[in-house]
Amino acid sequence: MEEMYVEWSRQARSAIEKPVPVRFNRGIRSVIVAGMGGSGIVGDVLSTLSSNYSSLPVITVKNHILPGFASREDLLLVVSYSGNTVETLRVFDSALERNIPMVAVSSGGLLKTRAYEHGIPYIQLPEGLAPRASLPSMLYGVLKLLYENNLLNIPFKIVEESVDFLEEKTGEAMAEAGLIAEWVHRSKGLLVISTHSPLESLGLRGKNEFNENAKIPVKVDVAPEWMHNDIVGYEEPFFKDFTVLEVVDPGDRVGVMLVDFMRTIYGRVTKSFHRLVLEGGSLLDKILYGSMVFGLSSCKLARMRGINPLKTASIQEYKKAAGAIFSA
Ligand code: F6R
Predict the structure, then answer these.
(1) Does ligand 1 have an atom closer than 6 angstroms to the CB of 187?
(2) Which of 39, 123, 320 to mutate to test the pocket of ligand 1 (most atoms within 8 A of CB)?
């Protein structure tokens, strides 16, 4: 599985080299991204980027319900790596009924079949990857689509440079991942990812990667919102076995100071800390670097525990039951 992460720059490069499937000759009010898990994270990252670069508002839908406000002025991106995720397919079907402009993104499955049947523009992803490990093909495919349709304020140079950056930094990400995996394995407490805005999507990505690859529960704490609720939970916790992975953007002075402050509070219950300082020039670089470190470190942790990082048995168990649940 690790090799899928090591190949990320190649994935990203081939995604931005592909022609886009559609050109919209009109304005769009907002972009809605529907998807679950490793596919849904594309919407979170896109939303972070669009706030940072003042592009269109991006709304993420990580369930089976197309928001009531979705209209023909919006663009719905339906992302499912497998193309068979029931929640995502339901959003697709609702959007068809309501005539919402869409683009579907998958490596195949029912989403591909339905998109072709209904003439919905479609982005083909490479086959044979784990959804979570195909983040670059999904994200860069969507970035290119938005850019070519004048819906993205991010200079395309930043997108292209991030691909070179990923290639250069793969070795460094692997080394950092090894340190994190060894440290988490030694500490064994509840892993807490402690970060600051606007890195919410990266914190979430880290959680998902450690959940799915290393098979452990994880908590994500994001400052400054953390200071207004979670902070109090560390006053009288039932247990004190926390392992705190701090994730900071060194170019964000306020962010670093907020995470420094968080440490003073966690310090009352744990002494187990590790800091991941994000590399890169742009926010896109930093999110991808952090995501690669999380992917690789969670795989390494799985190996140390004698676990197969690729298998997600309980997700498959849920997916078998989901058809019946949603058609009840
Ligand atoms: C990630 C992963 C899951 C899936 C999720 C949705 O590797 O396995 O988080 O992404 O179950 O499935 P897809 O992405 O196929 O729509």
Answers:
(1) no
(2) 39
Domain boundaries, position 197: 169-304
pLDDT of residue 153: 87
- Output the residue whose Cα is nearest ligand 1's atom 5: 37
CA dist list (Å): 92 to 24, 104, 109: 19, 8, 13
Asked if residue 313 is part of any domain, the answer here is no
**Looking at the structure, do residues 204 and 280 belong to the same domain, yes or no?**
yes
Asked if 278 and 289 count as a contact pair (C-beta separation under 8 A), the reply is yes
- Report how far ligand 1's centroid is from the alpha carbon of 131 (Å): 5
CATH code assigned at 145: 3.40.50.10490
Number of domains into which the chain is organized: 2
pLDDT at 81: 98
- The verdict on pTM exceeding 0.85 is yes
Residue tagged 């060894």 (tokens): 182
In a domain, 107, yes or no: yes
What pLDDT sits at residue 152?
Answer: 87
Is there a domain that residue 328 lies in? Answer: no
Choose the final residue of a domain: 154, 185, 220: 154
244: pLDDT confidence band, cut at 50, 70 and 90?
Answer: very high
Q: Probe ligand 1: pick from 1, 33, 79, 85, max atoms within 8 Å of CB?
A: 85
How many Å apart are CA 52 and CA 40, to the nearest integer? 19
Residue 59 DSSP code? E
Query: Could you give the 3-state DSSP secondary structure of residue 99?
Result: coil
